[in-house]
Task: structure prediction
Amino acid sequence: MFKSDFLSEAEARGFVFQCTDGEELDAALLAGPVSGYVGFDLTADSLHVGSMVQIMLARLLQRHGHRPVLLLGGGTTKIGDPSGKEEARQLLTPERIARNGEGILAILRRFVATDGPAAALVADNAEWLDRLGYIELLREVGTHFSISRMLSFDSVRLRLEREQGLSFLEFNYQILQSYDFRELNRRHGVALQMGGSDQWGNIVSGVDLVRRTDGRQVWGLTTPLIATASGAKMGKTASGAVWLSADRVSPFDYWQFWRNTEDADVGRFLRMFTDLPLDECGRLAALAGAEINEAKKVLATEATTLCHGRDTALAVAETARRSYEAGELVQDALPQHPVRIDQLAAGIPVFRLFAEAGLCGSNGEARRLIRGGGARINDRPVTDESYLVGEDDLLDGAIKLSLGRKQHVLLRPEPGVD
Result:
């Protein structure tokens, strides 16, 4: 049992998977403020739901009076982290990495305060990695890394076992992440690194490096990798990743993602992805039968509040209520997909539209769902997978596609461009 407020609540909410010297970390957290960091490589201009565990852990650290450090991987993104990856990442230009960093930082600031008395620190490892000399790194740091031990960590071992190859560039990632920890400790007194369980090898290596070279006590904490109760990867849908940027995934779709949570996951997700008190999470998770849907709506609204703001969350919750429960066509709020006027005039197979609009992952999946009776056009059931959607289906200038009761897309006619 942990005694510090942060670790006690982190464990109760399901964030703690592995920890180096947990008792000592607990004591340090009791003794005073601790700076702990989470890192984000800049491979896209937005984070997605898969990053929410680390974001919420940093948010929790700040709520308990400690200082989160948000490390942007402007340097390590130039290499690519092999952890959990089946192939090498595409290398990005410095300009693209810089743009991605701006987008990711804007998202992080929604969840973690970067100004005020308890402000989080923002750092970019390009500040020191870009100036790091290779010989200097080999002499000062390389002597503290054992090749056999590096090969034993999952991030490396699993790639090699699957015979997918691992470039020397990627192999160096573990060393650079460890160097980051030491640099943050030297510059800013950072004593805790947090990350997913697939980062365990990199985190332990960083702890060892700081202790060996500087004789300082630091710690590592990992979170479990999150999958749904059915075993699906967290944050994925038929149409792709659930991004935290409204430019990539609308607030309505974001709300809907959480609303579609499996019954068995509601309590766990309430604890991890909202700020609701633990007893309230427990009360909502205990709801049975149809009442569990009310808990899902609370989850969706609270999670959307954190990402997009309270006003937006309440607005999309009301839109969902009117669309799903009152059967209204709330055009301005539903996800929209363009369709060419000339193609609509000629008729477009309905299965193709369901796939192109992102309601299904493929044409084959769309055909099966339509045959199964799960598809509707303007709230009218359609079971003929070859039905041609045309201009006659326009209703108030749009066509509403629905899959089940919860997934809707509006088709908006646009002029064709050759």
Remarks:
- The chain has a mean pLDDT of 88.
